[in-house]
Amino acid sequence: MNKQKIMGVINLIHETDELDKLTHGRCTATVPFGSRYRIIDFTLSNMVNSGIQEVGIFVHKKYRSLMDHIGSGKSWDLQHRQSGLFILPPITDDVQELSRGDLFHFYQNRDYFLRSKPEYVLITRSHMVCNIDFRKVLDFHLEKEADITVVCHQSTEPVLGKARKVRMDGSGRIVEIQDSYGRMLSDYSNMEMYLMKKDLLMDLVETSLAKGQDHLVRHAIFSKLEQLNVYGYVHDGFLAVVNTINSYYGNSMKLLDSDVWRKLFYEPGPIFTKVKDGPPARYSPDAIVSRSIIANGCLIEGTVRNSILFRGVHVHKGAVVEDSIIMQNGVILPNSIVKCSIFDKDVVIEENREVKGVSSGPYLAGKRKVI
Amino acid sequence: MLMARKEMIAMLLAGGEGKRLGVLTKDLAKPAVYFGGKYRIIDFTLSNCVHSGIDTVGVLTQYQPLELNRYLGIGTPWGLDRRDGGMTILPPYMQKEGGVWYKGTANAIYQNIPYIERYEPEYVLVISGDHIYKMDYELMLQHHKETGAAVTIAGFEVDWKDASRFGLMHIDEQQRITGFEEKPVIPSSNLASMGVYIFNWQLLKQYLIADEANPASSNDFGKDLIPAMMNDNLLLSCYIFNGYWKDVGTIDSLWEANMDLLELSPSLDLGDPEWRIYSVNPNQPAQFVAEHAKVASSLISEGCFIEGEVKRSVLFYGVETGAGSIVHESVIMPKVKIGSNVSIYRAIIGDGAIIEDGATIGKPDSTEITVIPVGKHVYAQDQLMGVE
After folding, report:
1. Confidence of residue B145 (pLDDT cuts 50, 70, 90)
2. Which of A270, A290, A297 has its CB closest to that of B291?
3. Which of residues 148-167 of B touch A (CB under 8 A)?
4. What is the DSSP letter of B286?
5. Distance between the two ends of chain B, CA-based, in angstroms?
6. How do the domains of chain A map onto residue ranges?
7. B285, A272: Cβ pair inside 8 Å?
8. What's the pLDDT score for residue B388?
9. Whole-angstrom Cα distance, residue B192 to residue B240?
10. Based on the number of CB atoms within 10 Å of its own CB, is A237 exposed (0-12), middle (13-18) or buried (19 or more)?
């Protein structure tokens, strides 16, 4: 049987964005991550791997790169006759409405929700990078007879990046949610994934807007923790919260742990992305590579350590790249040294240069910069 | 319905059994054999078609088509899922008077005359899915039009020592073909036919029908049709191709062609953004090179996890090599799992094989390439040499 129970909604409205130059020309969702992916690939793949065949993306700002990346949704197998992918840009009468909260935009697109057949809706952000099976979240939701299930992550280490905190009682019911700057001490972070019946969402949209409130989490969920059964489902895999430069860098470096690499990219499902058709990576006789992730299309003639190279990067002879992230088509010319840096796409480092950041403050070069 | 007439369509012969590839083609047609770290042989001809502006390709399959069909699908990875034309897989089929297998290359085209007629093409390009090369068929078509030939055959100068494996051509100074011999024992020319033909369709059709009516014919382009055209004094022209071209029909040539890619500036450039080689995407993460790994002079694809030493080798997607393992001058096909302290020298390992810790395959200075069959489990105590 293949009847769809859940529709996916990727909510990019007012998504936290402190990614500096990386989001000058794009939204957080399309920031390159993990050597060949864009951040949104993880959420899209998770949905598809969980059997969700209808996904709506509420885009908001700077979404040209998103349209380019997603295309028809074919790369995620979301190009169907019956359902598939919907990109929902803001419907506004005047520009000021653009800044209103997500509930307003959901309301403006209510026809989309009403026309969809699935009974449940899963609302997510893009910047929570993980590999998760949402079918288990639905099972949990049904078992707990929850009104809303919130996916949470438990960790005793401080979370890199900005995430809301969650406090639960012994039964798993959420009793408090605080914004990332709140003082509450809790090991549980909110992964900003909310599962509920579509009818409930529509109710929340209408009742909140009637009261002049238009933020899903802050208004419709924070304030209703007493009236509604809101439960926390704990996801126990790897989580990268990617919404600040330090979390971008720190979480990228975590991928260099082979266990994290295996878990994030394979378990429970594969991660899909737009196909580029580059050749396999080439290593010259002089290449020295250790503890690194290298994408196809790279040509390595120099030294690469503790680094992540995106597709088509060329490290010339005598060049050294350490503790760095070099995005698509970056070129490091001979005898240059790059340390603790993040290079956006198409950055060129001329010969005999030295570019160094520190791990607590990596050097960040914007797209097409030449040094 | 209004349908654009096609100036030229391609008929791709993909039924080759590839006998000389032994265990690698036991369950697989030759065009589906892996090459170059992420491709299958047929990707090259399909990509050539697309880059040459040909959007209608009939793929003739016969031998072990399951995996090939699954791979080709509806042609999406090559951009051949089109409303008008695109890729069509053409297996032999049953007819009222009973069906027959494709008896030979010419018969395969003969049986698909109705397919070709649908597009009313001026020219038909006949190619095979057995070779590795990047070629612009549009330039060849230009040559064909300029010379006004009935047929143009692409030719490539091969090493004299290999010449007897090919159909060989003699040409005059205007590149007109004056003689043609199919796989002679003692070659008198080294200009090999690449198995790439452009025919004027109406003329080809006449010859196909006549050839089919001749019970003595083996219904083969090289052996029957081309000689028949020569006998009738038609103008046969040769289009000389100067790029990289390799028939990877034997274990040695398959291994060599893979090794060719490891040169500093390989004559076959896989990275040309203007001429990408399209293939089915395996959806693997970027490769992971571990702390103590040593990788040099190699071509490594997505999803590989490398802990050991890899030198002068081609690793397809999803290959894992354990700590202390050595892979030298070898071609490791997709999803092969290599344990720790394994030694592999001058070998081709079939996809999905599992090599346990401590096994030894091949020898460093061996002249013979060791081949491990698809999915084979090699145990720790095994020391394998040669072709099974």
Report:
1. very high
2. A290
3. none
4. P
5. 55
6. 6-266, 282-365
7. no
8. 52
9. 10
10. middle
Coil vs helix vs strand at B248: coil
Contact of B345 with B67, CB cutoff 8 Å: no
Dig out the tokens for B295 from the structure: 């990788």
Parallel, antiparallel, or unpaired: how do β-strands B326-328 and B309-311 relate? parallel
ipTM of the complex: 0.92
Indicate the Cα dihedral angle A290, A294, A298, A302, nearest 10°: -10
d(CA B352, CA A223): 54
CA dihedral A304, A305, A309, A315 (to 10 degrees): -10
- The answer for B 21-80 residues in CB contact with A (under 8 A) is 36-38, 76-77
Contact: A36, B264; criterion CB under 8 Å? no
Contact state of A282 with B36 under an 8 Å Cβ cutoff: no
User: Across the interface, do B286 and A271 touch by the CB < 8 Å criterion?
Assistant: no
Tell me, yes or no, if B95 comes closer than 8 A to chain A by beta carbon.
no
What's the pLDDT band for B91 if we cut at 50, 70, 90?
A: confident
Rounded to two decimals, the pTM is 0.92
Largest CA distance in chain A: 68
CA-to-CA dists, residue A73 to A53, A205, B78, angstroms? 11, 28, 17
Rounded Cα distance, A85 and A104, in Å: 21
Which among A75, A113, A130 is positioned nearest to A267, based on CA atoms? Answer: A130
Instruction: Cis check for the bond before A268: say yes or no (omega within 30 of 0).
Output: yes
B271 touches chain A (CB under 8 A): yes
Nearest CA-CA distance, residue B320 and chain A, Å:
12
Task: Please state, in angstroms and rounded to a whole number, the distance separating the CA atoms of residues B374 and B354.
Answer: 9
Sign of CA dihedral B155, B156, B158, B162: negative
Q: b/e per residue, B178-202, with b = 16+ CB within 10 A?
A: eebbeeeeebebbbbbbbbbbbbbe
Report the CATH superfamily, name and number, of domain A282-365.
Hexapeptide repeat proteins (2.160.10.10)
- Give residue B297's region: left, alpha or beta (phi > 0; psi -120 to 50): left
How is domain A6-266 classified at the architecture level of CATH? Answer: Alpha-Beta Complex (3.90)
Q: State both tokens at B205.
A: 């059709």
Q: How far is A259 from chain B (nearest CA, A)?
A: 11
Q: How confident is the model at residue B4 (pLDDT cuts 50, 70, 90)?
A: low
Q: Which two tokens stand for residue B59?
A: 């793929």
Cα B35 to Cα B134: distance, rounded to the nearest angstrom: 14
Q: Please tell me the distance from the alpha carbon of residue B356 to that of residue A94, in angstroms, as a whole number.
A: 66
pLDDT at site B369: 93
**Tell me: the pLDDT tens digits for B96-134?**
776 777 888 999 999 999 999 999 999 999 999 989 999
- Interchain contact, A284 vs B297, CB within 8 Å: yes
What are the pLDDT digits (tens) for B198-230? Answer: 999 999 999 999 999 999 999 989 889 999 999
Q: Are B88 and B48 in contact (CB under 8 A)?
A: no
What is residue A275's predicted lDDT score, i.e. its pLDDT? 86
